Amino acid sequence: MSGITTHVLDVARGRPARGIAVVLERVGTPQSAMLGRATTDADGRVTAFAPTSSLQSGTYRLTFEVASYFATMRVEAFYPRVVVEFDVGDPAQHYHVPLLLSPFGYSTYRGS
Fold first, then answer.
1. What single DSSP character describes residue 50?
2. Over its length of 112 residues, how does the chain's per-residue pLDDT go in tens digits?
3. What share of the chain is helix, strand, coil (3-state, %, to 5)?
């Protein structure tokens, strides 16, 4: 299991957001490195990114490709993707990054 997980909830529909492609990257100097990609499951979750990599201290980025999710439902949306960057201070901890999503806004936080 990855030390980084996510959960996407479509707050406009009151349901998990299924089928959203998510890319996990480590942001560093001089360039970023793609660590894995996954698609949210029926519960809107990504519990592991493939391929997996050991977690290290540093800055990470999750990119949620939301345009196709909304297009599939024929819903006009403002954001084609949501990018969330966050810092991992202790690689021994688990980092859960939920995304609350609607067609014209989003919110995120550090979950448990």
1. B
2. 458 999 999 999 999 999 999 999 999 867 778 899 999 999 999 999 877 667 889 999 999 999 999 999 999 999 999 999 999 999 889 999 999 999 999 999 999 8
3. 5, 50, 45
Indicate the residue type of 88.
V
Cβ atoms of 16 and 44 within 8 Å: the answer is yes
Question: Please, where are the H alpha helices in the chain?
Answer: 67-72
Which residue type is seen at 105? G
Amino acid in position 54:
S
Cβ partners under 8 Å of residue 8, min gap 6 = 16, 17, 20, 22, 40, 44, 45, 64, 98, 99, 101
